[in-house]
Amino acid sequence: MAGHSQFKNIMHRKGRQDAQKSKIFGKLAREITVAAKLGTPDPNMNPRLRAAVIAARQENMPKDNIERAIKKAIGSDGENYDEIRYEGYGPGGVAVIVEALTDNRNRAASDIRSFFTKSGGNLGETGSVSFMFDRTGIIEYDRSVASDDAVLDAAIEAGADDVISSESGHEIYASTESYRDVAKALEAKFGEPRKAALIWKPQNTVSVDDETGEKLLKLMDLLNEHDDVQNVYANFEVSDALLAKMGG
């Protein structure tokens, strides 16, 4: 579990490091549009859209941008995006899952494959590494929202599977089947979370040396900076010293 939290810190570092707000907004808008197209355009009735809107608010995306992205899904002239999951191995044999939304499958596959190859890894078939991850829902709250015991009690009552409270906040995990109900119950008690989404959570993490870790962090950066890539998950841990060196 500690490894997962550290991995999340790596991803959070990337989010903060990316100075291109327009790129972040573009990715968020794409997810909002796709989520609204696949379900109802009402965030209260569409869990995926709700998660996308929450993510957009966390990045201070203007309300007008959010509403415009939802309206795109309703109109007939909006772009069509394919949802694709890429799986492969990075340096050191670390398992990596990449979720993308693209309007050009060939371009996305070619780019992502080249990132893996250049880093010393290789792109595999769908299913080649996802068996090492659990598809699960996560609901996150800031540390200040309630005490550890209060969050734990509320999570158990709501039907959550696990709770991790640390200095960085409260992480509540729920199965894909119960995630929506758990999120609703917690939001009624604690207000809007800072994150609510379905993720790929590694079952175990592997510690890597700094040389391998640096290659992996560079691969994560390359993937995250690609316009088509929405989320990247991996099952590795790096040293605090390397995180500090890389700007974490």
From TrEMBL:
Domain TACO1/YebC-like N-terminal: 5-75
GO CC annotations, alphabetized: cytosol
Single Gene Ontology MF annotation: DNA binding
Keywords: Cytoplasm, DNA-binding, Transcription, Transcription regulation
Region (Disordered) location: 1-21
Domain called TACO1/YebC-like second and third: residue spans: 81-236
UniProt xrefs under Pfam families: TACO1_YebC_N, Transcrip_reg
InterPro entries in the cross-refs: Integrase-like_N (IPR017856), TACO1_YebC-like_2nd/3rd_dom (IPR048300), TACO1_YebC_N (IPR049083), Transcrip_reg_TACO1-like (IPR002876), Transcrip_reg_TACO1-like_dom3 (IPR026564), YebC-like (IPR029072)
Compartments it resides in: Cytoplasm
GO biological process, one term: regulation of DNA-templated transcription
NCBIfam families tied to this protein: PRK00110.1 (NF001030), PRK12378.1 (NF009044), YebC/PmpR family DNA-binding transcriptional regulator (TIGR01033)
Family stated for the protein in its record: Belongs to the TACO1 family.
Protein name: Probable transcriptional regulatory protein AYJ54_14555
Species whose genome carries this gene: Bradyrhizobium centrolobii
Taxonomic lineage from the root: Bacteria, Pseudomonadati, Pseudomonadota, Alphaproteobacteria, Hyphomicrobiales
